[in-house]
Design a protein that fits this description.
The structure holds two protein chains of two kinds.
Chain A lengths: L3 H8 L1 E3 L2 E3 L3 H4 L30
Antiparallel strand pairs in A: 1-2
Chain B lengths: L8 E3 L6 E3 L6 E6 L4 E6 L1 H6 L4 E9 L5 E6 L2 E6 L6 E10 L4 E11 L5 E4 L5 E6 L1 H6 L5 E4 L3 E3 L2 E2 L4 E3 L2 E7 L8 E9 L4 E10 L3
Parallel strand pairs in B: 1-11, 2-4, 3-9, 10-18
Antiparallel strand pairs in B: 4-7, 5-8, 6-7, 8-9, 11-16, 12-17, 13-17, 14-16, 15-16, 17-18
The chains are: A alpha+beta, B mainly beta.
């Protein structure tokens, strides 16, 4: 049986008395691109996100 | 047990899946298009302000499958959301209160790609890579990895079956398609709590 309160507790933190959902950056370290940048025409890697952004995945 | 260094580990971030409805506005969340995960709606403020309780809930969904739920657990709504038919969708909890009021609270969903983990690879290399699901497992109340489905391998060669090692899945890959082909391996993952996610890693050619 899935417990919604457990899932909520895994997500929600309290700041100034207001519950807010964490951003992805709270949940994992900054995205790191490993290896050399893609060659022209290869995968659309995109710009490296700022260190404070976790990125979606 | 295989030790895979950080340089060959894809540490997937997780998409939050709780919507705390402190206003009437929808809450925007992201989701892997194929993921099948439990989402929570928190109606505490609405119910507390009206000094009532939630009596029942029905779903109103668009562009996203609803394989289970919704259901109520106190002031929380729980629903499992599955495959998205396009890049966006929505799910609405239509809540009926004990005092007879009805309100809608909506989660707006945007599908996110998972092309962030790209590894350089020589076609001759035969090495282990790790898919790390720690962040998603934590958001699912510290569940565990239960099983891995058939890998979807493109451009590279799977030299081993996927192996669960704690919060990671480890696989060995060789070869690589020539040119700018999309080289990748996608894994369908099932958690111990029944949730499912799909994550991929990608390779680009580094010829030595």
């Amino acid at each position: 049986m899935i417990n919604a309160a457990d899932l909520l507790a895994a997500h929600v933190r309290t700041e100034g008395g207001t519950k807010i959902a964490p951003q992805p950056a709270d949940l994992a370290g900054p995205i790191e691109y490993v290896g050399a940048p893609a060659a022209s025409g290869a995968l659309p890697i995109g710009d490296r996100p700022p260190a404070t952004q976790g990125g979606a995945r | 047990m295989v030790t895979v260094p950080a340089s060959r580990t894809a540490k997937f971030a997780a998409n939050p899946r709780v919507a705390v409805f402190n206003t009437t506005r929808p809450v925007a969340l992201t989701k892997g298009a194929l993921d099948e995960l439990w989402f929570v709606g928190d109606f505490t403020k609405d119910l507390t302000d009206a000094a009532t309780t939630a009596a029942s809930v029905v779903p109103v969904s668009a562009g996203v499958a609803v394989p289970q739920g919704p259901m109520l657990q106190g002031a929380l709504g729980l629903v499992k959301l599955g495959a998205m038919s396009s890049g966006s969708g929505s799910f609405t909890f239509r809540v009926t209160c004990a005092n007879g009021e009805v309100f809608d609270r909506t989660i707006l969903l945007t599908a996110v790609d998972d092309r962030l983990w790209v590894f350089g690879k020589d076609p001759d290399d035969q090495r282990f890579y790790a898919f790390d699901f720690a962040a998603d497992l934590a958001l699912s109340a510290n569940t565990t990895l239960a099983s891995v489905g058939m890998p979807v391998v493109v451009g590279v060669t799977a030299l081993s079956a996927p192996s669960i090692q704690g919060q990671q899945v480890v696989m060995k890959f060789g070869g690589l398609a020539a040119g700018d082909a999309v080289n990748s391996c996608g894994l369908p993952i099932t958690f111990a709590n029944g949730e499912k996610i799909y994550r991929s890693i990608y390779f680009i050619k580094e010829d030595h």
